[in-house]
Amino acid sequence: MRPLKLRLQGFSSFRExxxxxxxxxxxxxxxxxxxAGKTSIMDALTYALFGRIxxxxxxxxxxxxxxxxxxxxSLEFSSNGRRYRIHRYTGRAKAGGxxxxxxxxxxxxxxxxxxxxxxxxxxxxxxxxxxxxxxxFTRSVLLPQGQFQLFLAGGPxxxxxxxxxxxxxxVYKVMQEEAxxxxxxxxxxxxxxxxxxxxxLADATPQNLSEKRLLLAKLKAEAALLEAQLRALQEAERxxxxxxxxxxxxxxxxxxxxxxxxxxxxxxxxxxxxxxLLVERETRLRDxxxxxxANPYDADVYIRLERAREAAxxxxxxxxxxxxxxxxxxxxxxxxxxxxxxxAAALKAEQEVALDYQLAFDALEELRQRHRVAQLxxxxxxxxxxxxxxxxxxxxxxxxxxPLREGEEACGKAEEKKKAIERKRQDGEKxxxxxxxxxxxxxxxxxxxxxxxxxxxxxLSEASQGQAMATDEIEVALATQRRAREExxxxxxxxxxxxxxxxxxxxxxxxxxxxxxRYQDEVDRxxxxxxxxxxxxxxxxxxxxxxxxxxxxxxxxxAGAKASDVISAVQHRQDEVGGARAEAQRQxxxxxxxxxxxxxxxxxxxxxxxxxxxxxxxxxxxxxxxSFLRADHFQAFIREQALxxxxxxxxxxxxxxxxxxxxxxxxxxDFEVVDHWNGDEQRAVKTLSGGETFVASLALALALAxxxxxxxxxxxxxxxxxxxxxDEGFGALDSDNLEAVTSALEEIGSGxxxxxxxxxxxLALAxxxxxxxxxxxxxxxxxxxxx
Length: 787
Description:
Number of strands: 15
Oligomer: single chain
Largest sheet: 6 strands, antiparallel
């Protein structure tokens, strides 16, 4: 994995949006003062990939900047020749989100198609892409701060502790505990199976199953006999139902016959009386038509009179309203004239007061001038330079004036009187303008009412057809028409009722004729149905009696010819036989259920015996594994093998970094160096100088970073190590050691195949790097520049 671009906002001390472009960097330093946010850049990179921060683990919300509600980080990186982009954010109150994209150079429409946007799926996909999980990443790409130098030069106990932590050998202790737990669990499982076989499944034997099957066959034979009897009884019940149906038909046909004969007699009576009633209704209808013809009501006259009455009322209302409005208009005109005279008088008074104010103001200015001259002469003597021209004064002028306060008071009183007259004039002008609007509005309303009065008088003339009718005359004429209309409406109702009665009686006569013929046909049909129902009832009674005698059902044979008695006897016999059959079927169901349960239990018992055997065997294997892991030999073997591998790989790096002078070898639980420049002398690593110790530690750290993903319990990743970040304190190095360390770092980062970044506040070391990311801190948050 090699980072290309990192963008962060609201993350730790980086308040505003900040971007780091790694694409052109190979060997570089991240530098800045303590607390500026150097390590936060690596924290942001780890958070983007895994959603975790080495210093906080999963509790990443503490890294949200106090001025933001959420933090967000975007990382573009490459891995195994492909480019990816991940965006991750976390809020204070809301759950975080993630979006993983892969660059597709062949697509112009969607160059960054979505890979995953669900947290679990995206995290798993990232581990697949970079070939390691969070633990492997923080132990190989981000070198453990302060641990790899201790790992080289510390004692065996310190080295074992560091190695156990880096290789995660604690997993073998967990394996031992899990093996003991599994052994105990499997043994308890086997004992539980044994208990179940001896109690719950004790009757699950082939002999018990055979006895159940014999009893089942006997019960099924008895149930078959009872089933045959039920079928015969069902046939008898059907004949009984047929008898009941025939008797119901006979009763219904007899009832229908009686009803049809009654309706036939009623229809014949209607035909006899209907003709005389029709003649009487037709005579009454002719009398009503004559009364309607003589009625004086005229709808047109009535409508015209109503319109005339409404028009007369409107004229009266408009005349009254116009009179009041004309009186109001006259009063407003008088008020307007008075207001005009008042404004003219105020204007004249304002001119007089303005002249008085100007005189007072001029007098005040002259008094002020004299006062200033007196102040200039105060303290001067003859021969002093003039304060105006600078010449020596031969004589001093005498200035006489009254007190300045008297002039100011006189001017102030004149100004107050002027303002009072101005306010009075302005108030008068406002009232005059308001009265002008009122007069104009009133005159407009008078004109509108006059026009409306003319229109309404014209409407009255049209409604009365030019006749000069008073309102009371219109009311009398309307009352006459109203009474005639009421009488006409009563006659219309009588005529409608008589016509309805005529139509109804005519319909009744026609229906009576039709019904007489239909009811006669109904009488004939009912008599035929009575004959057929009597024959059907006889045949059904004979069939029931024959079946009962054949089956020897004496109570059914002697039930008689009444359908209800026959059906009751058959149903009683059905209840007895049905009860016996239900009991047999219940016993059959119970035995079949017991047989199936026995079959399942026999099969289950066989399977449980196999499970018991497997559980006891697994418990034995788990006990042996726990016994093996209980001793420290296995972990010691892993440590020894890891030391050998790391010494070999670290030696390769150290040989290059020391220009072929040193190699590393593992001697027991310690490291030694071979000095090829001193006759291949082999000595302890503690004899190295400070700079040489750092270079040797760095070589060993490189070996740890490259081999850790495949050592011990750390994992089996085969991904190439494309990036390396060293967060280590370089401040204790002297100039010679610093030179050695710098040369070593330049050697590691040469060629560009691996990105190497160091985090340091040592400016001398940072300036030796080909590139530098400078981090600055301020009140508004951290910022950075790439140099």
